């Protein structure tokens, strides 16, 4: 099924970035959060979906899901019955009081059980005033209009709005999910790839599908082959393998070798924030004793806190190594 | 005049100290400059002859003055003692002073200043003080004059005023150098004079070629003026000159003159010295002393006016000169603006008289020398090509070189002038051969090593010039070092890359998922998509009634059947609408009025059994088209199931207004809360009792209560909400009519207002059709606590106006109990709503879900409700989402029992079910668990939740379990959960056990505290989008790892909902607007505690002086803390708790406290 559609579509959008080119248009193409997506797909066929808020980190398919829902639910009348406002549109109090209200009052003939949809993307960037003026509107016109909101942090949505919606939380995609999509795209694009490269992309993406696809495209267009080296050339990060070695040295209580690696990374000019972030990510998968790993993570956390506080010197990272070695020794 | 001014000002500006300092600099540099010059080949070169000459001159003059002064001293002594032996002594003293330069300079400075003073004071006297009092000095001057006298005659014919001026200037500039070149002017004079005319011609040509014609016109005008002035002055001077000066005979001049250079040579061991020696020989020979010049000089030494003195001298010199001077002057002046160098040279070479003058005027001229002149000399120090050519052969002896240079001067001038003019223009690079020769010369004096170095550098330059023509030379920075510094990081990076490529290759072979959680299986591209599960509508439940009967016994004190009947009614109603495809006018068949309801229900109940299938929802819109919140909301007072008391209050309030008129209200129906006193006058009481403020949290049913009552009591609701433009003007305008008349007709509703018609869509028929034709109006102002100041101007005032003037009830709905602008209204009539009880709501929801054919476990409902912070509307929304998308759906069939319910003993007994009926159990799980990556602890760690879960976690811990006495302690703890901290309890049991579990527990707490610290630090910077994520991740991973590894309690279900009573914590009450948790804990909290405690006590003791208490209650609302009475009391309660009961349950076990 997807291939058929892709072959048709590929001709039209050869020039698009891959995140647009491979943006899912059907629910079963959406990666991750399967349960929620499946339930939404039910609503897309059955209608009468309540107001929803989809909250989650970037790149997990919030907007895509909402657009899928609206497109499938409304079909041809999508243009008339959907009002989409994102952060680039003006969404002040006046817009809410006039534009959205006018839209809600409009009469659009829809089949029973279908409602007009107001999509408010990036709703957490709406001002509180705008949200306040939205709250009663959501209720009064609920017979004809439903709202679908997408946001990163649900804390920024005021409680009255949250109380009028079903809160659906999307979480970061698992690495396997990202990987599966990457392989699919690679095959469609007929790219030469190896496991190393794909894993590198997955590592850099950190559960963000958008970033994964962007990195994949950058690597493919820059170097052709998707190999680990190429990927890290594009996404310049402290190399996880180096960091893994470093942590292994620490676990073996060999601070000299560990420091050598750290100094090398430092000389390459990576920011300490990046280094500590990648150390943490690598450490999560480190193949050492659980107790030791726990101690490691604690030390990393303390160092991260210091770095965020502004003590972002090589000295802090070195002291991290020393403490890791001490932890390994006492273990 | 301008020129003159310039000169004189130059002369006057400097001080004696500056002169002394410059002597120090000028005595040494001649050699140095020669050494330096080749390194900068692109600077315009100037012949060193002039420079050297000037320097020599300077040196000579300085020495002369030194000598003079010494001689003066000695002369005075001599005159006093009349001893001839003093002469020899003086000579020796001179040598000593010359050798010790510092000494000499000291003396010199003193002397010069003194002489200046003399010169100034005795300005007017015809006889110069120097001459009269110091015969030695004059002797010396005259001796120098003698040297120049020979050359003066031929020179005079050619010199002009300008040259003279220049000479004077030179002299003034040069006077500061040590008077080394005593004899040099003589040699210069000897060589310079013949090619004069030739050079002038050349100069003219040059000048004209460089576009000097234009300039000349302007300059000529200026010249004329100057000439005039000069002539005037010359006349004046001549007059003065008629008075005879007293020339002293040149007694010892020659002898001294010879002796001086030798001495100086000894005194200053410099390479130039020989030249001075050689030069010194020459001046001895000229025998005659030009008395006239001496006279002249004497005159000049005592100028009438400081400024005029020089000019006067010039004028005098000018007098014998011919008409040729005019042209020469022109030439000289054309040159004036860009450069002084050629002039200087010329003057030195041409006019011996002026040089002679330098010596005579030294005392007054020397100290006035500016730093700028020195800089100009530096220019002159650069070698000219011609000089270089000639110098090379003479490199051996530099004294000879100088002589030669001086002789070659006239020939070289035109060439030397060239760079002058060219300098403004892009200068063609000098002839390479010349350059090389020059450099060779310049390198001659340089040490071998340095020269080699420079050679190499030049080679580099050459190389770069050859290779990179287009670019300006960058190589002067030092190419080799740059190269080295660049190559180092490059190498590093390459090495890095090599390593990077190596290492992954090595590691990769061993493990694929070392950095990510991908397993090897994931890399196999799988075409098989997950099977798309087709949605099947939930099966209609036939035996709802029997289920409800079963539940009835379980739900104590809950009107189960009442609820069930209501819902069934609505459910049927709406499904009937759906089924009927809106062909049937809805209002007729389902009239829900108080009168018809009973009969209708009875009818329907009879029909219900048969018609069960008939009302199945159609396939087109199986979910209906209403939200649950709309569908199941109460429409009549009787339908209000929860939150009954406030609704009752509201009904009583409205009942007053429901009657026919205001006057007919009877006060019996009033509650105590609405303590209104009624008078006969309706207008007086209107202000106080026609408003009602409904306060309560979100979704506690405030607005719904109003609408339900309005529907029940036949009110027409005029609603104002935040979604409308509600400026004060508009508000008044629209509601004026409504407020002033008791009733408005249905048709004449104010424009723009929103009646509840939309919601009453389904049940249109009201009681209005029965008894009354008119509907009273009711003003409902929603969200009154939200005011947008810039948009809704005057909203608050309009509310107060309405409240004061309205003849209809005004109901104001607000959420924030501390809203400042509503305080006055709130003090009158307030009805407070609260979130409904969780247990009741869960039963209500259970019946509702059963009605929707999807019975859900009670625990799930309670959990979700609490998880949503007791927000009924949200829970309903989520319930609808869950139910209408299929309940447990596909997953329940595949997976077996969810793990959540199995382990918690605190849960209430499950709902009794019948066979074949599936009780859905995944509602809560769906809304709380992450679907992609499963976490044991939900991702953003809520440490309050963690705290609540700690008890259970510890109890389920495998590592801790085996050390404890089983059974009894567990039950004991679960019983005493509130009063006994788990840690304490554990400690009490563990003290007599091994220390290993203690260590484990300590570790666990350590990790937790670190995690909470991390989380707190991340929260403080929550503005930043990226960093807190990492902090959250870190904290979460730490907690999860700690729970899994330290406690090894994997099968415990993490409790997600929070018990509101346990949640109360002073820290939470304080609000989150404090900057940091640290500051909050250390500064803010103690202060708040103290305030709370003292104010509480005071308020309890005496009513009168509790103003601050009320202030806190009323006005501290908009400050950082949301300080209200409840919060205040809650805080006080928290504080008093530890006093009451000794073990404080919460604060010991929290990781927060561990941290702080």
From TrEMBL, chain A:
Pfam families xrefs: AAA, Rep_fac_C
Single GO MF descriptor: DNA binding
Keywords (A to Z) from UniProt: ATP-binding, DNA replication, Nucleotide-binding, Nucleus
CDD domains in the record: AAA, HLD_clamp_RFC
Origin: domain of life: Eukaryota
A GO CC term attached to the entry: nucleus
InterPro entries from the UniProt entry: AAA+_ATPase (IPR003593), ATPase_AAA_core (IPR003959), DNA_pol3_clamp-load_cplx_C (IPR008921), DNA_Rep/Repair_Clamp_Loader (IPR050238), P-loop_NTPase (IPR027417), Rep_factorC_C (IPR013748), RFC_lid (IPR047854)
Gene Ontology biological-process annotations: DNA repair; DNA-templated DNA replication
Entry keyword annotation includes Transmembrane: no
UniProt entry tagged with the keyword ATP-binding: yes
Compartments where located: Nucleus
Ranges where the AAA+ ATPase domain occurs: 48-180
Main location: nucleus
Protein's UniProt name: Replication factor C subunit 2
Source organism (scientific name): Drosophila virilis (Fruit fly)
Gene: Dvir\GJ12823
UniProtKB/TrEMBL annotation, chain B:
Region (Disordered): 67-143, 173-215, 230-292, 320-371, 596-620, 887-911, 964-985
One annotated Gene Ontology cellular component of this protein: nucleus
Ranges of Basic residues composition bias in the record: 67-80, 263-273
Record field: compositional bias (Polar residues): 130-143, 347-357
Molecular-function GO terms, alphabetical: DNA binding; DNA clamp unloader activity
Biased composition (Basic and acidic residues): 206-215, 328-339, 606-616
Compositional bias per record (Low complexity), positions renumbered to this chain: 88-103, 181-195, 892-911
Alphabetized PANTHER family for the sequence: ATPASE FAMILY AAA DOMAIN-CONTAINING PROTEIN 5, CHROMOSOME TRANSMISSION FIDELITY FACTOR 18
Name by which UniProt lists this protein: Uncharacterized protein, isoform B
Native source organism of the sequence: Drosophila virilis (Fruit fly)
Gene name, Swiss-Prot/TrEMBL: Dvir\GJ12756
């Amino acid at each position: 099924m997807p291939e058929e559609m892709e072959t048709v579509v590929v001709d039209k959008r050869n020039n698009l970035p891959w995140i647009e080119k491979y943006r899912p248009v059907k629910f079963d193409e959406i990666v991750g959060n399967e349960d929620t997506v499946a339930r939404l797909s039910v609503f897309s066929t059955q209608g009468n979906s309540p107001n929803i808020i989809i909250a989650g980190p970037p790149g997990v398919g919030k907007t895509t899901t909402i657009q899928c829902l609206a497109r499938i639910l409304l079909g041809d009348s999508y243009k008339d019955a959907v009002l989409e406002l994102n952060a680039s549109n003006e969404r002040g109090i006046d817009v809410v009081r006039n534009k959205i209200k006018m839209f809600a009052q409009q009469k659009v003939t829809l089949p029973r059980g279908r409602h007009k949809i107001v999509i408010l993307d990036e709703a957490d960037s709406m001002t509180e005033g705008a949200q306040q003026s939205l709250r009663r509107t959501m209720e009064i016109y609920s017979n004809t209009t439903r709202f679908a909101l997408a946001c990163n942090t649900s804390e920024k949505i005021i409680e009255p709005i949250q109380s009028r919606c079903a809160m659906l939380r999307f979480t970061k995609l698992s690495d396997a999910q990202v990987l599966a999509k990457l392989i699919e795209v690679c095959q469609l694009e007929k790219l030469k790839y190896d496991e190393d490269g794909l894993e590198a992309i997955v590592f850099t993406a950190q559960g963000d599908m958008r970033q994964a696809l962007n990195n994949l495209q950058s690597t493919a267009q820059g170097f052709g082959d998707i190999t680990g080296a190429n990927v890290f050339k594009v996404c310049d990060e402290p190399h996880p393998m180096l960091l893994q070695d470093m942590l292994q040295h620490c676990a073996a209580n060999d601070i000299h070798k560990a420091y050598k690696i750290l100094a090398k990374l430092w000389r390459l000019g990576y920011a300490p924030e990046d280094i500590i972030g990648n150390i943490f990510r690598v450490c999560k998968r480190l193949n050492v004793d659980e107790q030791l790993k726990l101690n490691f993570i604690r030390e990393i956390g303390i160092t991260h806190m210091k770095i965020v506080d502004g003590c972002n010197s090589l000295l802090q990272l070195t002291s991290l190594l020393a403490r890791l070695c001490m932890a390994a020794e006492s273990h | 005049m301008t020129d003159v001014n310039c000169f004189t000002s130059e002369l006057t500006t400097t001080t004696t100290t500056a002169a002394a300092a410059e002597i120090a600099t000028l005595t040494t540099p001649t050699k140095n400059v020669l050494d330096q010059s080749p390194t900068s080949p692109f600077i315009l070169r100037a012949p060193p002859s002039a420079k050297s000459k000037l320097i020599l001159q300077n040196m000579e003059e300085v020495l002369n003055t030194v000598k003079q002064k010494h001689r003066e001293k000695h002369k005075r002594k001599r005159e006093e003692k009349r001893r001839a032996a003093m002469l020899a002594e003086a000579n020796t003293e001179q040598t000593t002073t010359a050798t010790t330069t510092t000494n000499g300079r000291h003396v010199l400075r003193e002397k010069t200043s003194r002489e200046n003073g003399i010169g100034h004071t005795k300005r007017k006297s015809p006889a110069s003080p120097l001459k009269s009092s110091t015969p030695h000095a004059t002797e010396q001057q005259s001796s120098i004059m003698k040297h120049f006298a020979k050359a003066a005659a031929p020179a005079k014919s050619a010199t002009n005023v300008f040259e003279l001026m220049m000479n004077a200037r030179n002299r003034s500039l040069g006077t500061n150098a040590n008077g080394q070149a005593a004899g040099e002017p003589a040699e210069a004079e000897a060589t310079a004079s013949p090619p004069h005319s030739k050079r002038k011609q050349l100069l003219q040509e040059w000048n004209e070629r460089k576009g000097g014609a234009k300039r000349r016109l302007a300059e000529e005008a200026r010249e004329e003026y100057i000439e005039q002035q000069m002539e005037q002055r010359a006349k004046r001077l001549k007059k003065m000159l008629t008075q005879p000066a007293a020339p002293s005979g040149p007694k010892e001049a020659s002898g001294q003159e010879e002796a001086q250079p030798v001495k100086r040579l000894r005194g200053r061991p410099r390479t130039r010295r020989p030249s001075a020696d050689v030069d010194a020989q020459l001046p001895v020979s000229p025998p005659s002393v030009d008395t006239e010049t001496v006279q002249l000089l004497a005159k000049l030494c005592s100028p009438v006016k400081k400024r005029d003195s020089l000019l006067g001298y010039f004028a005098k010199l000018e007098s014998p000169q011919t008409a040729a001077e005019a042209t020469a002057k022109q030439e000289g002046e054309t040159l004036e603006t860009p450069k002084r160098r050629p002039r200087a040279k010329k003057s030195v070479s041409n006019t011996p008289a002026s040089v002679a003058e330098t010596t005579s005027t030294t005392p007054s001229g020397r100290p006035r020398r500016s730093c700028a002149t020195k800089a100009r000399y530096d220019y002159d120090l650069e070698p000219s090509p011609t000089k270089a050519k000639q110098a090379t052969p003479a490199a051996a002896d530099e004294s000879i070189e100088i002589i030669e240079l001086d002789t070659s001067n006239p020939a070289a001038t035109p060439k030397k002038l060239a760079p002058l003019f060219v300098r403004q223009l892009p200068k063609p690079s000098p002839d390479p051969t010349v350059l090389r020769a020059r450099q060779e010369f310049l390198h001659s004096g340089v040490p071998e090593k340095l020269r080699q170095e420079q050679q190499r550098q030049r080679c580099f330059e050459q190389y770069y010039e050859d290779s990179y023509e287009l670019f300006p030379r960058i190589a002067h920075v030092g190419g080799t070092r740059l190269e080295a510094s660049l190559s180092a990081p490059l190498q590093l990076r390459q090495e890095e890359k090599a390593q990077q490529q190596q290492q992954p290759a090595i590691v990769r072979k061993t493990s694929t998922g070392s950095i990510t959680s991908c397993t090897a299986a994931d890399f196999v591209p799988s075409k098989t998509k997950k099977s798309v599960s087709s949605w099947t509508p939930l099966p209609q439940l036939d035996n709802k009634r029997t289920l409800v009967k079963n539940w009835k016994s379980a739900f104590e004190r809950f009107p189960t059947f009442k609820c069930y009947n209501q819902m069934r009614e609505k459910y049927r109603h709406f499904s009937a609408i759906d089924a009927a495809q809106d062909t049937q006018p809805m209002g007729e068949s389902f009239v829900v009025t108080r009168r018809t309801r009973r009969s209708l229900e009875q009818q329907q109940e009879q029909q219900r059994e048969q018609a069960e299938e008939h009302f199945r929802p159609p396939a087109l819109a199986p979910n209906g088209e209403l939200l649950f919140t709309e569908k199941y909301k109460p429409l009549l007072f009787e339908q209000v199931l929860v939150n009954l008391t406030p609704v009752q209050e509201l009904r009583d309030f409205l009942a007053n207004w429901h009657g026919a008129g205001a006057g007919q209200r009877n006060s019996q129906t009033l509650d105590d809360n609405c303590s209104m006193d009624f008078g006969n006058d309706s207008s007086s009481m209107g202000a106080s009792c026609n408003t009602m403020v409904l306060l309560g949290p979100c979704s506690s049913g405030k607005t719904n209560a109003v609408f339900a009552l309005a529907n029940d009591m036949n009110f027409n609701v005029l609603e104002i909400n935040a979604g409308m433009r509600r400026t004060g003007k508009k508000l008044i305008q629209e509601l004026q009519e409504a407020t002033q008349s008791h009733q408005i007709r249905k048709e004449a509703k104010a424009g723009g207002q929103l009646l509840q018609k939309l919601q009453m869509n389904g049940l249109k028929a009201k009681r209005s059709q029965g008894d009354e034709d008119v509907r009273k109006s009711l003003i409902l102002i929603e969200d009154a606590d939200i005011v947008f100041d810039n948009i809704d101007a005057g909203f608050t005032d309009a509310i107060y106006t309405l409240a004061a003037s309205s003849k209809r009830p005004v109901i104001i709905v607000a959420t924030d109990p501390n809203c400042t602008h509503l305080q006055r209204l709130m003090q009158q009539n307030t009805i407070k709503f609260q979130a409904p009880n969780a247990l009741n709501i869960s039963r209500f929801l259970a019946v509702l879900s059963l009605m929707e054919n999807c019975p859900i476990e009670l625990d799930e409902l309670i959990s979700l409700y609490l998880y949503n912070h007791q927000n009924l509307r949200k829970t309903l929304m989520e319930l609808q989402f869950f139910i209408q998308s299929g309940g447990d759906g596909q997953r329940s069939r595949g997976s077996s029992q969810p793990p959540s319910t199995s382990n918690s003993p605190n849960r209430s007994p499950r709902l009794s079910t019948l066979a074949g009926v599936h009780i859905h159990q995944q509602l809560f799980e769906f809304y709380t668990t992450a679907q992609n990556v499963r976490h044991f602890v939900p991702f953003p760690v809520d440490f309050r939740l963690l705290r609540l879960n700690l008890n259970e976690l510890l109890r389920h811990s495998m590592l801790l379990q085996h050390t404890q006495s089983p059974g009894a302690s567990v039950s004991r703890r679960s019983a005493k959960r509130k009063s006994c901290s788990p840690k304490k309890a554990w400690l009490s049991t563990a003290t007599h056990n091994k220390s290993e579990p203690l260590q484990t527990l300590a570790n666990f707490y350590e990790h937790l505290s670190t995690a909470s610290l991390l989380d707190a630090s991340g929260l403080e910077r929550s503005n930043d989008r990226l960093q807190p994520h990492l902090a959250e991740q870190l904290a979460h991973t730490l907690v999860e790892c700690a729970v899994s590894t330290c406690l090894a309690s994997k099968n415990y279900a993490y409790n997600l909902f929070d018990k509101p009573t346990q949640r109360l914590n002073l820290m939470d009450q304080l609000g989150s607007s404090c900057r940091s948790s640290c500051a909050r804990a250390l500064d803010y909290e103690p202060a708040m505690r103290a305030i709370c405690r003292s104010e509480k006590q005071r308020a309890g003791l005496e009513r009168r002086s509790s103003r601050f208490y009320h202030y806190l209650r009323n006005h501290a609302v908009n400050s950082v803390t949301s300080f209200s009475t409840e919060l205040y009391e809650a805080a006080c309660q928290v504080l008093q708790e530890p006093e009451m009961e000794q073990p404080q349950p919460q604060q010991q076990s929290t990781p927060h406290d561990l941290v702080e």
